[in-house]
From TrEMBL:
Residues 1-25 form the signal peptide. Residues 28-111 form the X8 domain. It is a lipid-anchor; GPI-anchor. PANTHER family: BETA-1,3 GLUCANASE, CARBOHYDRATE-BINDING X8 DOMAIN SUPERFAMILY PROTEIN. It is found in: Cell membrane. Keywords: Glycoprotein, GPI-anchor, Lipoprotein, Membrane, Signal. This is X8 domain. It holds the Pfam family X8. GO terms for cellular component: plasma membrane; plasmodesma; side of membrane. It comes from the Eukaryota.
Length: 111
């Protein structure tokens, strides 16, 4: 077996064992179900913002507008989801989150 092939299998094994995210061409975001209640959305924002920087969704931040709970939740949830390695579990949010493949960026709010 060649050294390059052994190196490839070693790196692949390490990624599987240690849950190292593997880069893919497909970009994904985490957002809230449109049917989520205001309480669920606020809870998702609170949880995510306890773990990641949510200054952009505060007044004056580049993601403050559109100023809706759903948009703010999508930003916070995506930021948390990415900080946790894009795992499905990191987008669960009590079964109110789901992973999308279309960019939810709006105006100056680039995800």
């Amino acid at each position: 077996m060649s050294l390059q092939l052994l190196t490839f299998f070693f790196l692949l094994s390490a990624a599987v064992i240690y849950h190292i995210p593997v880069v893919t061409c497909r970009r994904t975001w985490c957002t809230a179900m449109p049917t989520s209640t205001t309480e669920q959305l606020q809870s998702n924002i609170n949880f995510a913002c306890n773990h990641v920087d949510c200054a952009p969704i505060q007044p004056g931040g580049f993601c403050y507008y559109p100023n809706t709970l759903l948009d703010h939740a999508a930003f916070a949830m995506t930021k948390y989801y990415r900080s946790q390695g894009h795992t499905y579990a990191a987008c669960s949010f009590g079964n109110t989150g789901y992973i999308i493949s279309s960019d939810p960026s709006v105006g100056t709010c680039i995800f």
